Amino acid sequence: WLQSRSSTVPAPVPAAAASPAPLPASAAVAPSAGLDVSGFLYARRQATLSSKISGIVKEVLIEEGDRVRQSDPLVILDDQEARNRVPLARVGVDLARAGVAEAENELARVQEAMKRSERLASERLVSESSNTDLRYEVEGRRRRLRSALLLVEQRERELDVVQAALENTVIRAP
Q1: To 5 degrees, how large is the angle CA 108–CA 113–CA 115?
Q2: b/e per residue, 100-114, with b = 16+ CB within 10 A?
Q3: Would you call 60 helix, strand, or coil by DSSP?
Q4: What is the DSSP string of 103-172?
Q5: Strand pairing partners for 75?
Q6: pLDDT tens digits for the chain (174 residues)?
């Protein structure tokens, strides 16, 4: 900081400017050249990893300094619980679908009975009250079918959630 032919003191350098700047790879000098250089190396990209689910780490697939590509698996969490839940969720879907089939059959049976009853009522062989009862029965069976269809949709979404949890046991590179 001394200057020749001047008695003024240079202005202080801010701390940020005083820190060494990163050196590009092209600035490397062969040791035989007799030049010592110090500096910092920075990663081109850093990422913070986190898991969508909590769990016990089963296996770490990379080590510090390994090159990874986007979506490469990095860490595997214990997936036993998630794997056990998938078949149960599939059974839930199958049972709900069986409920739909049963509801459809019951609705078809009651609708057929109502057609017969309307035919007989037109010939005055059946009372109007029995026809009314069958209409209510048909509406009840339609509601039951709608409920069964909603249950299938719910069970399918539950299966999707369980399968996503299983997929989330593998932490991948961003």
Answers
A1: 95
A2: beebeebbeebeeeb
A3: strand
A4: HHHHHHHHHHHHHHHHHHHHTT-S-HHHHHHHHHHHHHHHHHHHHHHHHHHHHHHHHHHHHHHHHTTEEE
A5: 60, 171
A6: 344 444 444 444 444 444 455 545 544 544 555 555 566 656 666 777 777 888 889 999 988 888 888 899 999 999 999 999 999 999 999 999 999 999 999 999 999 999 988 888 777 777 777 788 889 999 999 999 999 999 999 999 999 999 999 999 999 988
Distance CA 35, CA 27 (A): 11
Q: Is-contact 104 145, C-beta < 8 A?
A: yes
Cα–Cα nearest to 98, from 63, 37, 149: 149
117 burial (CB, 10 Å; 0-12 / 13-18 / 19+) is buried
Dihedral over alpha carbons 139, 144, 147, 148 (to 10 degrees) = -140
Contact 85, 162 (CB under 8 A): yes
3-state DSSP assignment of residue 76: strand
The per-type count for the chain, helices as H runs and strands as E runs, is 3, 3
